[in-house]
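subagent[fold] <- orchestrator: predict structure for attached chain, return tokens only, no commentary.
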Amino acid sequence: MPTLNWIGKDAVVNHHQDVPFRTLNKKYTFGDDSTDAVNHVSMDENKIIHGDNLEALKAILPEYEGRVKCIYIDPPYNTGNEKWVYNDNVNSPQIQKWLHDVYHDSGITVDDLSRHDKWLCMMYPRLVLLKKLLADDGAIFISIDDNEQANLKLICDEIFGKNNFVAQFIWQKKTGAADPKGIATITEYILCYCGNNLHLNKIFTKNYEAFDIKRYRYSDEYVNERGPFYYDSLDRGSIRYSDSLNYEIFSPDGNPIYPNGRKTFVNDGWTWKWSKEKVQWGIDNGYISIVKNPKSNNGWSVKYKIYLNVDNEGKKIDKSIPFKNLITNVMNADASALMKDIFQTKVFEYAKPIELIEYFILCLKETKDSIILDSFAGSGTTAHAVLNLNKQDGGNRKFILVEMQDYAESITAERVRRVIKGYGEGKNAKEGTGGSFTFYELGEPIFKEDGYLNENVGTDRLCEYIWYSETRKPYIRQTDDSLVTKDYQLGTNNDTAYYFYYEPDKVTTLDKAFLNTITVKADMYVIYADNCLLNDEFMQLNKIKFKKIPRDIKKI
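subagent[fold] -> orchestrator:
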């Protein structure tokens, strides 16, 4: 498989492992479920996170790894004119050189090829973490334009797997005026990858909404089992003439009827679509109608009924059409107009239309109770789309937005607030969708730079981290007030009991006295403590594994 190499790639392929694991600090909750509850992160809530998206993606791994059904991101397109804000702390001389004052006073031109290297270095670790968050039966959609489309496709093939590539959507975003080259560039792309192609039949739904159901406007005595129907002509024009499909069909007044209104058989390519035997079956079972037609040479037409719920043999079917990879009915101007309606002024340059995000969410099966993630949140379009869909179909979708810019509160969160409560006045008033969200800031890292635990984050955050590092599962809170019980038990997973024997202001020791406090029966015990007085033979005999704090705490 072709792979893409660039200067600095080696430094970022595993950079996600070096990113500090930070906590999330709750600032407030807004909406229907507003509460001032204790600061812990809940999976059953909408989230807006202010902070660098690389660190934010790392921070949500304990809760959401492998659980996100739909990811949509609209990363910088790297046009050469946008402000670069993703200055990752990568310990590579080349990258540090590039990322130092990237957009200096002299500016960067389209011909500065090194900007592609910078863009790839920025995107790669973020995509790796998004891959970890994506569910096997989920899909990621990535907006991009011509500047990086080719590069993005190659690194996505590498990260998500070439076999998991689904489609490249082409979106006509505007009608457009010609650029200096004389070409009106009116399209962008959205690359789509699934979590695991073995689950393709569980990922994408059938496009019932787009099917022309208005066409099925007739009903008969079979409507309850077959659904409504529309008429189509039994005549078929074809350059391949077939004697077997040329025969007389008799009208109710006993006169013969021939294909295409002929008064006799003519070898001009017109035949019946069905065989004589099937036509008789159709007449006997209500699939064929012979109706008067003054425009026909013989005064009659033979029609067959196309039912909504069954095929022409009476078998149950799903009427649907595929989702198309060409999107032409959603314009970027609609997004600009909507933002102006919400804020009553122009506040954001590059908002995406909510209909575009809704389209991708509805492509996927069983999203009504799923998690939708956007780690380049911008103006908050993804949250708006999720809230709209929930209101329309009664769903309980949850969104996670990440935005690092200062407008995360003033634009991103403010838009969501107005969507929830409603906006506009008079005839332009828009009813609110309802719902709620919690706003978070990125907190302190779990580990200090010297490798020791950061006690400022609190015992609860440490317990969450250790449980996830051991089990790769989100932590289930033991009590309302604290994650850890009085006997320091974190929980049991796969017949292994985990204990975090930790006190911020004193040294803890694993000894027989501590073992006497353990009441849980398990096949294996993993116990974290500062010291251990038990010998190896005793621990092996009693299936105990000691892990020293902080040395043996895995760094995710």
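orchestrator: received. Logging for downstream: Residues 101-113, 480-484 have pLDDT under 50 and may be disordered. The longest helix spans residues 114-133.
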